[in-house]
């Protein structure tokens, strides 16, 4: 019995309530949609969920630019970003995700007080909305898109924003090449690329898919005016640059 308990503890990752290594392996060998359906009940107990300090910092930065009437959380997952929007939007907040499992968890865990909440199953590359939002946010979703998909993705965000509307998302400064974090993320991406080369369907999830300049350039091409907002809660690096920024891209008329 004690041996089985030790094995169970060793095979659980991130937290005691998190997925086992076996569950993660099954997820990783599934499609993105199916993988997140499987992970949904335990997603909030993994580091894949955006940490609360980042959510709070973005909410504080948006409060200075608001209030907003209606907001959309792009690739909302279990609804953490919807809770950010509920702090800064007065009328309506919508979460969109293509994982039925993640949306089911979001419906259960997100409080219903405040602005009207809505949940929509949909693909971020083909959003089922008109230009009806003043604010779009996204947390941790860009790694699920390939560089060639950025124009279409940002074009979709542009199409659902009213003129002057804001698209906001946090980005962290890349780790230094000599740091353990740099090599950990590089190794993770390498494993995912090998997996996608030999296994179908693909599971697109990369941590180092884009350079900062690529994001800026594609946002401008899609019709946004881009502003950088340092999130000072996370301090600065030795060279004085912010550790975390919020990209605030405003839709031009």
Automatic annotation (TrEMBL):
MF annotations from Gene Ontology: methyltransferase activity
Alphabetized PANTHER family for the sequence: METHYLTRANSFERASE, METHYLTRANSFERASE DOMAIN-CONTAINING PROTEIN
UniProt xrefs under Gene3D superfamilies: Vaccinia Virus protein VP39
A Gene Ontology biological process term: methylation
Stated name of the protein: Class I SAM-dependent methyltransferase
Methyltransferase domain sequence ranges: 72-165
Keyword DNA repair in record: no
Alphabetized InterPro entries for the sequence: Methyltransf_25 (IPR041698), Methyltransf_Superfamily (IPR050508), SAM-dependent_MTases_sf (IPR029063)
Keywords, sorted A to Z: Methyltransferase, Transferase
Species of the source: Streptomyces thermoalcalitolerans
Keyword Transferase: yes
């Amino acid at each position: 019995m004690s041996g089985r308990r030790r094995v169970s503890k060793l095979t659980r990752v991130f937290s005691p309530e998190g997925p086992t290594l076996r569950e993660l392996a099954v997820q990783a060998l599934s499609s993105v949609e199916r993988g997140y359906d499987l992970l949904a009940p335990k997603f909030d107990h993994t580091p894949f969920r955006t940490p609360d300090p980042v959510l709070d910092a973005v909410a504080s930065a948006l409060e200075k630019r608001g209030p907003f009437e209606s907001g959309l959380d792009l690739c909302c997952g279990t609804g953490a970003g919807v809770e950010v929007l509920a702090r800064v939007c007065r009328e309506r907040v919508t979460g969109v995700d293509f994982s039925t499992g993640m949306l089911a968890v979001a419906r259960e865990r997100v409080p219903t007080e405040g602005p009207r909440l809505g949940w929509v199953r949909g693909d971020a590359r083909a959003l089922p909305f008109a230009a009806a939002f003043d604010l779009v946010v996204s947390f941790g979703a860009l790694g699920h898109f390939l560089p060639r998909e950025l124009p279409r993705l940002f074009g979709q965000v542009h199409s659902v924003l009213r003129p002057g509307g804001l698209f906001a998302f946090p980005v962290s400064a890349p780790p230094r090449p000599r740091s353990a974090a740099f090599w950990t993320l590089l190794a993770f991406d390498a494993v995912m690329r090998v997996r996608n080369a030999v296994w179908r369907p693909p599971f697109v999830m990369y941590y180092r898919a884009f350079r900062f300049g690529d994001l800026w350039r594609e946002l401008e091409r899609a019709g946004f005016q881009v502003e950088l907002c340092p999130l000072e809660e996370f301090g600065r690096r030795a060279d004085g640059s912010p550790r975390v920024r919020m990209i605030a891209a405003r839709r031009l008329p």
